Structures are given as structure tokens and as C-alpha cells.
What does this fold into?
Amino acid sequence: MRIKFTLNGKVADINVEPDSSLLEVLRNDIELNGPKFGCGLAQCGACAVLLDGVSIRSCVTPAAIVEGRTLTTLEGIGDKDNPHPLQAAFIAEQAMQCGYCASGIMTTAAAFLASNKSPTRDEIRGALSGHLCRCGSQPRMIRAVERAARVMNGDDE
Amino acid sequence: MSVSRREFIHSSGSVVVYFSLGGCGASDPSGEDAVASSDNRITIHTDGSVELFMGKVELGQGIGTALAQIAADELGVAFDRIRLTGVDTDFSPDESYTFSSISIQQSGPKVREAAASARAYLEQLSDRDAADNSAVVGQSVPRIDIPGKTFGDVSFIQDVRLDGMVHARVVHPPAERAVIQEMDSKSVEEMPGVLKVVRDSNFVGIIAEREGQARTAAAALAALIRWELPGDLPSSDEVYDWLKRAESRKEEVSASGTVNFSPSDTVHRATYRRPYQAHASISPSAAIAFFEDSKLTVWSHAQGMYPLRGAIAHTLGLSPQDVRCVHKEASGCYGHNGADDAACEAAVLAMRLPGRPVRLQWERADEFLWEPLGPAMQIETQAVLDSEGRISNWQHDLWSCPHTGRPRDVDSAGYFLYAKHKENPLPDPAPYSIPQPSGGSDRNSVPLYDIKNVRVNKHFVTDIPILGSSLRGLGAYGNVFAIESFMDELAAQIGADPFEFRKRHLDDVRALEVMQRLEKETQWQARPQPGTGVGWGVAFARFKNLSSYLGLVMQLQVNAETNAIQLIKATAVCDAGLVVNPDGLKAQIEGGIIQSASWTLKEQVRLSNRARESYDWNTYPILRFDEIPDVDVILIDRPEQKSLGVGETAQGPTAAAIANAIYHATGKRLRQLPFTPDRLV
It folds into this structure.
């Protein structure tokens, strides 16, 4: 079947298998690396992407759902030449060890900061509590989200 | 060890110079700390870049960046001229496994030597950078790999896509030693995209054109297999009694003085328990294999490419020269997870479909049900205090299965799942008891404290009902939990301050400095009164009794109604000798604290007599963002001392500090991990 949607600001118009998960289409057909396979059960958050600005789990989402809608992955949040403040903050805080979970976390955090400009530390913890990190980089990630919020508010840097 | 410039290669007008070490490093092929021979390390390219061939693999611990810092300093070139190349058995130095927190100790000096030799060459070319005094060793240089991971570059084995690549799944048995009673795969062979259904006795795999097709077909196939399960596993509740009953051999780990518990002594006794726990890597294991013209190439995230090559070659009846293993990162492994098995299984499948790269992806349940677990431990301690409040007699007995089960050579290839499941299974390897000073289940079982009479016995359980192998820290997690909990219990017996009681038994100056600094930084003497629901606990260890020192204070709160334990803050002081990258070192310790806190508060693989019953993140919960403490790590830099690894240093102290803080908060002493709220009822 054919689906047409906006992916990271550009029109995507592709053929997919009718029963494909969104994650499989993004990773195997479109060859993006941002969304990761972690559990296939919507439990860990490694596959998080933004559908019309809302963080969803692409591993259990049928690809057909995105027809006519707007999808953003880690790659669409920012890039090396024009990084999202969150990406710059994750680098500045060295906020990952293996980094496998980090792309889903940055993606969810981007949606969170879009709706909450000045979050408290507890609000950040709550917003990310559906994401698992096994290396124990959470304190650095929380600091990175705080740093990004300050930058986006023009508070410093 | 001789250092020599080995060869010049002239090609298309460019000059590439290789520098390597001659001879072999100290070799101990039987031990977990084995070091194999060295090979090419550094190549200076004509564009001025310096290529550093890693012998250790990047696991997200930042070893690549640290080695690059050492190379840059020794060469006297700018840090950004260094390029890293991962381990490939076609050309990389053979440094066996990346494990045991010894990469900086083993690989660092070799990189330094090779770089020193290359430096002489660069001096001839006057190609060293002027800013010689701006040494990068000791600086928090940002990790080389983080930007790529931040922007979605190809960073992980999961991101590798080869031309013509097809997708595979393995239908694993539901439990160890299960056998197939009945299987009819005909309907699955005709499903869309299915290229091959592979069966070799109890090994079943499927290869399809697209990943979704492989997943669907594997699920269909799983429903068509009837398994017979042995049903004789010790359950989670039975496992500790089972450990004491099972066949074991007693090894004396340490004996000093004469331990003598006389009838007139008051002997303090305690029993501590640590359950089977999982590595629970965020990415389930994956591998890609390609077989063509009798040559096999395997891309894997396992911890040792050379051992993997040897074990795969033996299992599949190939010559090691015809097998190439290439390291690609996956998520953190924290020891021996499913990586090696996925690599072997991918190789088996690729050999049934020559000419097409076969990508095998384990599902979440494959990883939880088939990764080798961190083995359960039963630890029994006894001690006598003399009239001056010093420990006069100390005994520590531990029961556990082997803490290593790595397929690394001909004799140990039988550890592979495929080797167990195939027709004519390879023989079970002889259980291997890792000797001191590293130790396996007995790692850190000898207290570092100055005690006159000490006896430590390892009861090495040789009946192995549940796959087990190295999980971060090995026995150090359980042993330090026991020793440091027991120290607190003994201090409480005589009303001594836990800090002071430890210090009076320490004569190691570095250990004492760590504890003094920790006491000061945490303002320990101002801690709350006992029994208020808010607790502070302290613990200490020197990893393996020969690596880095770490003292830790955990602050937490226990909810009086729900018994829920909320961690508030962890403060750690660490002495790891010369620090190459302070921020990288801190990150390792922070992560170790949080992971150990997760093991300690939440983690246990549920076992029934039938099978493992933890198969996803709901049945094996780990600590979440809203449950982690703030973490503060303080480093004592000792530039005059050799660098020591810190990857596993925090595992034991964190567990004991939590137990001790719970005691301080509630008066209740928890001795069985994990500390779920029901244990406080």
C-alpha cells in the first residue's frame, strides 16, 4: 500500500507492506537510525517518534496511521549544522553512555519542552519516566533537558 | 617487550607507516584477565591523521576516547588528529575480551608504547604539534562517539544495512534443556517472504526477505512447535536452599591467622542473598553474518572478537582463518549478554543461505529468557568482636554457580546456545572457577579490613541448572553487599559509628583517605537520628582488592505506609589512580551507582520449576527516571599512581549503602536482595 505523509519537514510518499510497523518502515525502508528497536512492546521508549508533535511508540504503531499526518524523528529535531538545543545540551552534558536509549529520550523531551517552557526537575523526571535507560545516565539527561530549557528561554548561553 | 617500527608501505604516492609492538604480552589463557599478543596499533596517514587500532571494544564506556587521549599525548599531536578503528580480526591487535574494568590498565600502556615509537618518526618529520604542554590526559575531553549518536548517524550494529541483506529470527525453546516433541513447519515455509526454515535438532531459525515477514513467520512457527520441558529448575524461592544442597566443591579463598569460634565467644552471624539478575541490555542482541566462497564474516557486539572467532570456527567446523569477526557497538552490555549467542546463530543461518548477508535480531523475550544471568549467591558471615571493639575472627562462606560461561575457544564452545541445541551437541564445558586475585563468585570476598583471623570459603557449585555468566562486578556485588552490611551490623552491636568502625579496621592509606573525604563531604556527623524514616548508609570497597577504591553514602526515605523506598542522593568518593578523563570516569561511576541501585531495589529474575518467568520490562522492572537519586561523584586524582578501572567499582558499595540506610531509617535489616517494599512488612 502507498502512504503519503510529512517526515521531518519533507513529503514522504512510499510503498509499504500493509502490516508493517511504523518502526520497520522508518528503519528498514527509509533507513533512518534515530528510532531504535528496543522491545517491540511499547515498554522502553527507544523507538519514540513524534506524530503531529505527540510522542508515540513506533514499534507498535501500524505504518498506515501516518497517512496525511506529520512525523518527526530524531533526525528531524535538529542536525549537526543546526542542532536542537536538546541535542547541543546532550553533547555538552555528555548525557549518554551507550546512547541507545538517548534518541527516543531526546525525541520525547523535544515534545515536552515545546509544551512546558520552564519545567521543574520533577516534571522532567515525570515526562521521561516512560523511557528506560540501563546505563544510568538519567542524572545527566535531566541536566541536559534543564540546560536546553534555559537556552530556549534565552536564560543563558 | 621490544618496540619497533615494523614496515613502510608505499602505494599510489602516499606513505603509510605502521607502528606495532613486538613480542607478546603476559598471557594467561585460562583467566578472565587474559591478554593475548599485540599487533598493529597506530598508523600515521599522509593527510596527517593518526589511526589508532583499538584492541578493546567500545561498549559505551568511553574507552576509545580515553585511549585516543593517551595516544595524542604520547605522540605530541592534537587530539582531533586521532581516528579510532574498532576491532576486526583481519587486522586489529588481539586483546581478548573487553571486561573486568581493566581496559585502561591493559590497553593504555600498549597504546603509550606504540605511540612513543611513532613519536620518534614524527620528530624526524617535524610533524608534532607545537603545543606540547597542553596534555589531554587528565582532561575531560568530550567523547568522540557522542555527536554521532545524538544526530542519528550509523552508530550501532542495528544501523548496519548491507546490500541484499535478509532478516532472521530464532525460535528459542521456552526453557533450558527443553526438547522439541513435534514440529510441522510446512505452512510457515509457504508464508510470504520466507526464504528458509532451518532446523537442527532443537535449534530453529527462520530467514525472510523483510524483517516484518521474519517476525510474523517466527511467531507462527513458535505456535507450531510442541516442547517438552524438564520442569526441574529451582524456583526463585527454592534457589538458595538448592545452592547449599547442590553438588559443589569447597575452595579456600583466604586464610590468615587461626579462625576459632570458641563456645565462650559471642559469635555474630548473618546470611545474605542475591538472586539471579539480568544484564537486561536495552537493545536485544543482534548480529549480521555473511558466508561466501567458504569464508564467513560475522558482525557482532560481543566483548571479544578473537575469542568469538575461535569458538564460532570450532562450532561450525571452519578454520579460524576462514572466519572474520568485526565489532560493532550495540547498547551497553554490562558483561556477557546474548551477543555471542546471537553471533553464532546468525553464522549458522548465513551458512544455510550463502551469498546473502543475514541479519539476526533477537526479540525482547529472547534476551530475557536466553541471556546468561548473573548467578544467585548465598553468603553466610560470622564474626567475633574483642573487648576493644575490634573484629578478632571473621569467616565468610559463599555458595554460587560459576560466574563465567564465555564461549572463547575449542574447549568452551559448548557454552553457545546453538552448540547445546544442535544435533550432536558439543560437550558441556567443565565449570571454570576464576582464580584469585580477580575471582569469580569469590570476587571481593576477602575483606580489605585489618582483621587478625580471617577465613573465606568458596563453595563452587558445579551443577548448573540456569545459564549464568559474567554480570558487571561478578561476585563483588553480592560479597561487598554482605561484608559491608555485616560491618554495619557489627558496629551497631557495640554502638559504634559506622564510619569510625570501618576506619578503625583500615590500615590502607588510600582507603582511609577515601573514607575521610567522604565523611567530610557528606557532613556525616550531622546525619539525622535513627528511625525517622530518613536514612543514611555508608559502604566501602576496593574493587577486586587491587583496583579502584570507592566509598559511598546513600540517603533515602522510606514511606511509613507503603514501605516504598525513595532514593534521595548518592555521594561517592573514588580513588582510581591517574585519571585519564575525569568526566568519563565520573559517568562510569554514576551509571554504576544507578544500575546497582536498580538491581538492589527492584531486580530479580523470576524462576518457576518450569522456566524463567521474567520475559519483558513488566516482569523485570528496572529503576525509572522518577526513581533515581541525585548522584555526586568526587575523584581523588593521584597522577603518580597507575590508572585503575572504575566500571564495576560502585556495584557492591551501592547495595550495602542502601541496606545500611534502610536500617538507619527504619531499624529493619534487609539481607535478601532485592529490597522490594514487601521485604519491609
Observations:
- The CA atoms of residues 172 and 366 of chain B lie 7 Å apart.
- Chain B has three domains: 3-137, 159-229+281-370, 377-404+440-680.
